[in-house]
UniProtKB/TrEMBL annotation, chain A:
Alphabetized UniProt keyword annotations: Oxidoreductase, Thiamine pyrophosphate
Domain Transketolase-like pyrimidine-binding span(s) in chain numbering: 6-181
Pfam families: Transket_pyr (PF02779), Transketolase_C (PF02780)
Keyword Magnesium on entry: no
Domain of life from the UniProt record: Bacteria
Protein name (Swiss-Prot/TrEMBL): 2-oxoisovalerate dehydrogenase subunit beta
Keyword Mitochondrion: no
Alphabetical list of InterPro entries matching this protein: THDP-binding, Transketo_C/PFOR_II, Transketolase-like_Pyr-bd, Transketolase_C
TrEMBL record, chain B:
Keywords for this protein: Oxidoreductase, Pyruvate, Thiamine pyrophosphate
Organism of derivation: Flexivirga endophytica
Pfam family, one: E1_dh
PANTHER family: 2-OXOISOVALERATE DEHYDROGENASE SUBUNIT ALPHA, MITOCHONDRIAL
Protein name, entry field: Pyruvate dehydrogenase E1 component subunit alpha
Residues of the Dehydrogenase E1 component domain: 77-371
InterPro entries per UniProt: Alpha-ketoacid_DH_E1_comp, DH_E1, PdhA/BkdA, THDP-binding
Cofactor(s) it depends on: thiamine diphosphate
Molecular function terms from GO: magnesium ion binding; oxidoreductase activity, acting on the aldehyde or oxo group of donors, disulfide as acceptor
Length: 329, 406
C-alpha cells in the first residue's frame, strides 16, 4: 500500500524530497526555504534533513537567486528555485528571459540549464497586492522554457519530480489557493507510470462542451461540470498541465468531439493562454466547431484589491454562463 | 503619534551627515590618476617602482617572477592587441557586424587571465578577448557572435571560459553561482593546487551600476564564495564617464559587502598579475571574494558602432597613450635586459601570423544551414520547434528550381 492522502503542498514536498534523495546534485534555493520551510511550508523539513548546502536560504533578491542558480546549473547542479510569490518574479525576469531560456541555444547545445523555477501563483487567498498574479503567459511565450502547472496533489508529487529531472529549464507554477486540497496520491511508480510532464489530462469526460483549464481553475471547472450535469449539460474538463508545450492532440481530440470550447484561467484574457488556445483550436478544429472559442478569465485590469477578487476571478457562474453561450450558437 | 508631534517637528530637517569620510566626491574624479591606493610596479616609462604602502603586499609575487614570465606576458600583450586590431579591421571590411575593442586594456586582461589556473572559470562580458586568449580559447571562436553566425557557440567547458554576456552584469551572478558550486564540490581550501578552484567575473565601470553586479557582491559575500570580481574601469560606459556611474570608486565599494577591494594600475601587467594572483590564491584557499578594480582606459570606441569624438576630448586620450601597457612592458624588459630586439621582432612576426590566421578563418566562416536556427533550443524534443522546423524546410524546398527562390 503506497497510496497516501496528501495535500498538494505535501505532494510537492514529498516529490522534492524524493528528487533530492535520488540525485545529490538537486539543490533547493530561495527566500526562507530553509529553516522556515518557505512561507507556504512547501520545503518544510528539507533543510533539516539535507543540510544548508542543499537547501539554501538566499539573500532577498530574485535576480540574484535565479542568476546564481544558473551558475550552479553550469557547475553541474540541478537547482530548484522558489520564487516566494508570483508578483515577486519580475526582478528575475531578465535572468529568466535573457539567460535561462537562451543558454542552451547560445552555446549551440554545449550548455544545459536543468533548473526548475517554482512559482506559487493565482489569487483567491485575500492577499495584499503583488501576491495573487497569474503571469504564466510571459514565460509560456518564451522559447527555451518549459512551463507547467499542477492542479492536484498527485500531479504535484509527480510533476515536480519530472520537472527536476528535465534537462531543460522548467517554470513550475503552483496553484497557491489549492495548496491545502487533499487527495490520495500513489507514491510508487510500479503502480502505473505517471502521465508525462507535457501531457494534458481529461479530468472529467463529457460530450457537449470542452472546458480547458489549468492550475487553480481546474477544480472550479470540475465543480462547474458537476453543476451543469444537473441541468443536463455534459462538460469535458481538460487539465492542460503543460502550458508550453501544449498537448494539442488531447485538446483537439476533445474539441472535435464536442464542437465547443471554453477556456478558463485566472490571468487576464488579453494575450493570455486562452488567446493562443483559441487560435490553435479554430485552426485545427474549424470544421468541427459549432461555436466560437470563448474565454473566461481575469478582467483586463491589474489584479484588484482582494475585496474584489471574488468577482474578478472566474467562478462557477461565469463559467456556466460561457458554457451556455457556447451552447446557444 | 500624538497630534502635537507635527507641531514640534522642525520645518527643515537637520541634515544627517555620513559618519564615514567619503573619500571621493562626485566632482573630484581625475580620470587619469588612480590615486595613492593604486597598486603599481612599473611606471609609464618602464621603470620598476620601489616598494610602497600600496604595492608592498604584492611585491613578493613580482619578485618571484622570472624574465621568462615577463617575456611571455609581453608576448600575450602584443598578440592580444593584434587579435583586437584584426577584429576591428574585419568589421571595417564588412566581415564582422560589430567589434568591441579592448585597445588599452591589454594589461588588465592579460594580467588577470594569467593569474588563472586551468581549473579556474572565467565569466566575461563581451570585451574580454585578452582573457579568452590567456584561457586558451582560439580567437577564431570569438568571431561567430560578431559575424552573426551564432550567439557565441563555443564550448565553455573546453577552456573554462563562459560565453560572452551582452546584457551587462548578468554574468556576475552566474559566476557567483558557479563559485557556490565549487564550494559544494569541496574544491576549495584542500591545499591541492590542481584541485582548488576559483571563479573570476569580469565587467566594466558601467556594469557596477547594475543590480546584478551588486546582488552578486551580496551573494558572494554571504557565501564567502571563491571568486574575484574583476572590474576594468576604462573610464567610459559608452559616453558616460565615471562620475555619472558612481560616487566612490568601485574598489572602495567592496568593504560595504564585507570583503577586500583593491585598485590596481590596469596598464601595468605585472601589478595586475600580482594583485589578481593574490586574490585568486586567497579565493582558492577558502578566504572568500575580492573585488579588483583595474584602473585603465578604453583607447578606442565603445564598439565599432560608436564615435567617441562626440563625448570626450583628444587630450585625455593623449595622456593615456603615454601610459600604454605594451610600451611600458617593453621598456621594462629592455631596461632590465630581459629581452632583446630579436625577441621583440619575433613576437611581432608571430602577431602577423596570428592575424593572418584569424582573417582567413573569418573569411572562410560559412553561413550556417538555414534550418539550424531551430537546433538546440531545447535539450529534449519539443513539438512546436520540430513542427516549425519541418514546415520551414518544406517551405524552403518549395522554391527549389524556381527563379524566385529566396
Amino acid at each position: 500500500m503506497t497510496a497516501q492522502k496528501l495535500s498538494l503542498a505535501k505532494g510537492l514536498n514529498a516529490g522534492m524530497r524524493k528528487a533530492m534523495e535520488d540525485d545529490p546534485k538537486v539543490v533547493l534555493m530561495g527566500e526562507d526555504v530553509g529553516k522556515l520551510g518557505g512561507v507556504f511550508r512547501i520545503t518544510e523539513g528539507l533543510q533539516k534533513d539535507f543540510g544548508e548546502d542543499r537547501v539554501i536560504d538566499t539573500p532577498l533578491a530574485e535576480s540574484g537567486i535565479v542568476g546564481t542558480a544558473i551558475g550552479l546549473a553550469l557547475r553541474g547542479y540541478r537547482p530548484v528555485v522558489e520564487i516566494q510569490f508570483d508578483g515577486f518574479i519580475y526582478p528575475a525576469f531578465d535572468q529568466i528571459i535573457s539567460q535561462v531560456s537562451k543558454m542552451h541555444a547560445r552555446s549551440l547545445g554545449h550548455l544545459r540549464l536543468p533548473m526548475v523555477i517554482r512559482v506559487p501563483f493565482g489569487g483567491g487567498i485575500g492577499a495584499v497586492e503583488h501576491h495573487s498574479e497569474s503571469n504564466e503567459a510571459y514565460f509560456a511565450h518564451t522559447a527555451g522554457l518549459r512551463t507547467v502547472t499542477c492542479a492536484d496533489p498527485a500531479d504535484a508529487y509527480w510533476m515536480i519530480q519530472q520537472a527536476i529531472a528535465s534537462d531543460d529549464p522548467v517554470m513550475f507554477y503552483e496553484p497557491k489557493r489549492r495548496y491545502h486540497e487533499r487527495a490520495e496520491v500513489e507514491l510508487d511508480e510500479s503502480a502505473g507510470a505517471p502521465l508525462p510532464l507535457h501531457s494534458a489530462r481529461v479530468a472529467r469526460a463529457g460530450s457537449d462542451v470542452t472546458v480547458l483549464a489549468y492550475g487553480p481553475t481546474v477544480k472550479t471547472c470540475l465543480d462547474a461540470a458537476g453543476a451543469a450535469q444537473g441541468e443536463g449539460k455534459s462538460l469535458e474538463v481538460i487539465d492542460l498541465r503543460s502550458l508550453s508545450p501544449l498537448d494539442t492532440d488531447t485538446i483537439f481530440a476533445s474539441v472535435k468531439k464536442t464542437g465547443r470550447c471554453v477556456v478558463v484561467h485566472e490571468a487576464s484574457t488579453f494575450l493570455g493562454m486562452g488567446a493562443e488556445l483559441a487560435a490553435q483550436v479554430q485552426r485545427e478544429c474549424f470544421y468541427s466547431l459549432e461555436a466560437p472559442v470563448l474565454r473566461v478569465g481575469g478582467y483586463n485590469i491589474p489584479y484588484p484589491p482582494s475585496r474584489y477578487e471574488e468577482d474578478f476571478l472566474p467562478d462557477l457562474d461565469r463559467i456556466l454562463d460561457s458554457v451556455d453561450q457556447a451552447l446557444s450558437f | 503619534m500624538p497630534d502635537d508631534a507635527m507641531d514640534s517637528a522642525p520645518v527643515t530637517p537637520t541634515p544627517v551627515r555620513h559618519h564615514e569620510t567619503v573619500v571621493t566626491g562626485p566632482m573630484e574624479h581625475d580620470i587619469t590618476d588612480g590615486g595613492p591606493d593604486m597598486v603599481q610596479f612599473v611606471d609609464g616609462d618602464g621603470n620598476r617602482l620601489p616598494t610602497s604602502d600600496a604595492n608592498a603586499e604584492y611585491a613578493q609575487i613580482v619578485e618571484e617572477m622570472t624574465p621568462e614570465d615577463g617575456r611571455s606576458m609581453y608576448r600575450d600583450l602584443v598578440l592580444v592587441r593584434r587579435i583586437d586590431a584584426e577584429g576591428h579591421a574585419l568589421q571595417r571590411q564588412g566581415e564582422l557586424g560589430l567589434w568591441p575593442s579592448l585597445l588599452g586594456q591589454e594589461a588588465a586582461q592579460v594580467g588577470a587571465g594569467r593569474a588563472m589556473r586551468p581549473q579556474d572559470y572565467a565569466f566575461p562580458g563581451y570585451r574580454e578577448h585578452g582573457v579568452a586568449w590567456c584561457k586558451g580559447v582560439p580567437p577564431e571562436n570569438l568571431l561567430g557572435l560578431f559575424r552573426g553566425v551564432n550567439h557565441g557557440g563555443w564550448d565553455s567547458n573546453a577552456n573554462n571560459f563562459h560565453l560572452y554576456t551582452i546584457v551587462i552584469g548578468n554574468q556576475m551572478l552566474h559566476a557567483t553561482g558557479y563559485a557556490m558550486g565549487i564550494q559544494r564540490d569541496g574544491d576549495v581550501g584542500t591545499g591541492d593546487d590542481d584541485r582548488d578552484a576559483a571563479v573570476m567575473a569580469f565587467t566594466g565601470d558601467g556594469g557596477t551600476a547594475q543590480g546584478d553586479f551588486n546582488e552578486a557582491l551580496v551573494f558572494a559575500g554571504v557565501a564567502n564564495a571563491p571568486m574575484v570580481f574583476f572590474v576594468q574601469n576604462n573610464q567610459w560606459a559608452i559616453s558616460e564617464p565615471n562620475y555619472k556611474q558612481f560616487r566612490i570608486p568601485p574598489y572602495q565599494r567592496a568593504r560595504g559587502f564585507g570583503f577586500p577591494g583593491v585598485r590596481v594600475d590596469g596598464n601595468d601587467v605585472l601589478a595586475v598579475y600580482a594583485v589578481t594572483k593574490a586574490a585568486m590564491d586567497a579565493a582558492r584557499a577558502g578566504q572568500g571574494p575580492t573585488l579588483i578594480e583595474a584602473f585603465t582606459y578604453r583607447m578606442g570606441a565603445h564598439t565599432t558602432s560608436d564615435d567617441p569624438t562626440k563625448y570626450r576630448i583628444a587630450a585625455e586620450v593623449d595622456i593615456w597613450r603615454e601610459k600604454d601597457p605594451i610600451t611600458r612592458m617593453r621598456g621594462f624588459l629592455a631596461s632590465k635586459a630581459y629581452a632583446d630586439d630579436a625577441f621583440f621582432d619575433g613576437v611581432d612576426k608571430e602577431a602577423d601570423e596570428l592575424a593572418a590566421r584569424i582573417r582567413k578563418a573569418c573569411q572562410e566562416m560559412p553561413d550556417p544551414p538555414k534550418p539550424a536556427m531551430f537546433d538546440d533550443i531545447y535539450v529534449d524534443p519539443h513539438p512546436v520547434v520540430e513542427r516549425e522546423k519541418a514546415e520551414f524546410i518544406a517551405y524552403q524546398e518549395s522554391f527549389a528550381g524556381s527563379e524566385g527562390g529566396h
